[in-house]
Amino acid sequence: xxxxxxxxxxxxxxxxxxxxxxxxxxxxxxxxxxxxxxxxxxxxxxxxxxxxxxxxxxxxxxxxxxxxxxxxxxxxxxxxxxxxxxxxxxxxxxxxxxxxxxxxxxxxxxxxxxxxxxxxxxxxxxxxxxxxxxxxxxxxxxxxxxxxxxxxxxxxxxxxxxxxxxxxxxxxxxxxxxxxxxxxxxxxxxxxxxxx
Length: 196
Prior knowledge:
With 196 residues, the chain is an all-alpha fold. It is built from seven helices and no strands. The model has no long low-confidence stretch (mean pLDDT 91).
């Protein structure tokens, strides 16, 4: 492999890694916000349902009381589990680390692209930056990067579609809300299938 193709490959690898880390950061940041909002909504709903139960305790039948109790318990457990499983601040920390990693790669990328440093020094700095951050991106983030870059490098995006990149990236970002919605539906289906 000649020096020019080595240089071009290295520039491409850094550009893809930089964009992948930024995609990873955006996805985690969105997931953190969605998760915090979802936990807050679940908690507020639990409180309102509990207040409703207290305010109307004498006029509620035993069957309705059991259904409301199951709903409150289900929503409270879901909110508790979601707040403990990779809390929002932890997701934000990982997002910030990924963003910082992308910025540091950008500095090396520009310095190497404009021949301010040679390939050996750039490779050492690049490896040092990659090794510095313990959290690694998912394949989904890389796939989205390659799909977004498909016009420049169509061969690298072979087999990637809007569905298995952009759409799945969106689903992953909003997964806490989707999970909460699915669990709420499951609670109501449970009450229908197993009447109290």
